Amino acid sequence: MTGQSVGILAYGSYIPATRLPLAMIHGGRAKEGGPEKAVAGFDEDAITMAVAAAVDCLHGIERGAVDGVYFATTTSPFREKQAAAFIAKALDLRSDIATNDFTGTLRAGAGALLAALHAVQADPTKKILVIAADTRLAAPRSALEMNMGDAAAAFLLGSGHVLAAIGDSYTHTDEIYDVWRAEHDDYLRAWEDRFNVMHGYTDNVVAACRGFYAKTGTTASDYTRAVLGGPDGRTLLDVGKKAGFAAQSIQDALFGKVGNCGTAFTPLLLVAALETAQAGDTLLAVFYGDGAEVVSIDVSAAGFTPRHSIAWHLARGTALRSYDSYLKSRYLDATEHNRRGGEGVPATVHYRERDSDISFLGQRCTQCGTLHFPACRVCYSCYAKDQFESERLSDKQGRVMSYSFDYFFPSPEPPVIVGMCEVDNGARVYLQMTDATTDMLRCDLPVEFVFRKIHDAGNKPNYFWKSRPIADAQAQTTTEAAA
Amino acid sequence: MSKGIRDKVAIVGVGCCKFGENWHQSPEDMIVEAAYEAYADAGLEDPQAQIDAVFCGSVYPSRGTAEVAESLKLFDRPVSLVQNYCATGTDAFRYGVAAVASGMHDTVLVVGYDKPKDRGVSGPSIHMNTARGLPMTPAGWFSLCCARYFETYGAGREDLARIAVKNHHNGTLAPKSMLKKEITVEDVMNARMISWPFTLYDCAAQSDGAAAAIITRSSLAKNYRDDPVYVKGVSIALSANPQSDPTFDFLAWKPTLAAARDVYKQAGITNPMQQIHLAQVHDCFTMTELLTYEDLGFIPKGSAREHITNGTFALDGALPVNTDGGLKTFGHPTGATGVRMIYENVLQLQGRAGARQVQGATMALSHNLGGAPQTCGLAILGIE
Q: What is the pTM of this model?
């Protein structure tokens, strides 16, 4: 059964590979299989995680078909400068598209989703990419740190043969100091836990659900599954129960695996629910923050598997060696180097090189077929001048021609693994490797490409692509949208 | 391909300051020391009248041409600065040779120098002014050739270590070298890792230094010395960046192959192993020296390991390489290095190399490899 209404055409998720065992936060030893949380690597932020989730979501979909990027986050690397435009550039999307950042609240994900829904309802030919990503920091070793996590989720909204139709929605708005970050706060602030649970989370989620039921004339029993984040697993079950759901129909919130990932929390759990949903299932998604927003989703097709499923992401986690390495990876330790200092990439150079460095476009010689990176004017192979067609490298695979481990270059996690990668028997790309350890390296290792932050010199994040070993045969590597 | 300048030009004087962390010396001190040693070596008594032009090589000069001209008070004549990555010294020499061979000048001074130890870092500087191409470290660039070579030909870190051990030994015999310390294979293997597979001891010693040579027309050479050294060939080749070259195989460095073809043709070399009696090659990292044995055609591709084990390139071997300790221990003030190699080859060919003298050598080669690497400089000198 395939719906014809407005809804989700594709989805994807991203959970960083790095895990912080919760026991380490208070100086304990990590136990095998013990609770942990996902934390962005030193080269990751909300933008890179958003790109990763979007790449997964758009796998097999023509990038030129995307008409907008609505990005929800409370942790954009920029206070002023649009993250969505940056993400669109990294995804090599068209320039005549709508881009918006939705920010300032944990339910920004719902804002982005509903804005996209309305855009598609207004013009059913449109396809809007909705992404939520967050890397919220709690103060090191604080109680809040136990439950925070980093992740991203992406949805392509459109009309026609949707996987899941977006139904009704209801918004309950509330003004409350429960969790916040003021102008100069690096870390999350929160009022007393029991107040937050009672008057922040519980009151708002219950009010929104009741409002939704009243508006739509439904009850909790009309929905297969409730999808909502929460401050912790126990509170989530309590509140789900108050909203009318039995524990078994509440989507597992991945506490002890990922953690509360801010604006991406409900979106990530929605991806998890969709991955296992059956056609005909109905989901009730609740987005909490400064009130709560409720959206119903009718699953019209089962069997869609994104390129990397939530299960894949959960299985590939690598525990940090120590809490100290966590502090290093989030740049929370004192070092002799000023990581924001130095020249950085000149804005003019960035401007000229954006197609190569951000969109990761190579170029193929139309005379001899040789693929080049970066762009150049004269062909390396046949010396033809300006006879090139650009070709996106980011969704190709490569192989490692040769490699090295650099212990000299400053990095929070030395050594820096460097690989000369070959793409399509032509383009050579000198790339740092990420999510890898030195023992994985061998010549001809197959790699894929991921968008990462390279450094913060010049008082701004500077991004480029890195290579990543293609996961083993057990990993899911294909996407087949259900017909 | 060059037309060649075989035997048109001769070296009549060479000089070199002691290489090292010359905290007490300015560039001026080192330039004066090297140039005046070369003047004396040539018996050149009136540089103001006898030096017609100056070719300077420096990779990070603070003032370039003026730095050399002011140091030596050589004004009102051509003074030019040449830069070509780590082949800078050899390229400055090549410009000098070409200027004399063309007949434009009778006698010229070549000065290579660099003063990296005023920068406050023990290795190369790291510049975060790009997002692509990082980490931009020389060790990182040169180490990239190791993994594939190791997998293809079975060599390994021990073979590299033996090159470092050899060059450390040779350096103990050179009075002006920076490091004078015998080391063992274990020392190399256990040292701090810089860029796998290079440990600290696989890397050249970055140092301050200056070296100089006086070049004149062959017909004028015997006015200066009875035993001038003749330039048999000199070549520079720049090849595609191995980080973007679509056909690079990481088993041989293209600029060395290209420059060798050219310089051997100039010098009439058809069997390098037999015709060349000693060589100074660019050992910025041990792997650079290993590949250079093969890229220069001394031995077949892939056979370096057995020759390293057998001592082919040791001071008492069939073809001694880096007789003064090389970049590894003599030191590597980038712009000076190519000229320092010429200094060593001249001393060897004239039988003035003391404890490290290679007996009966009449043909010597010097080799620089620079960039990512992209550029190679080669010079072949002969006493006959």
A: 0.94
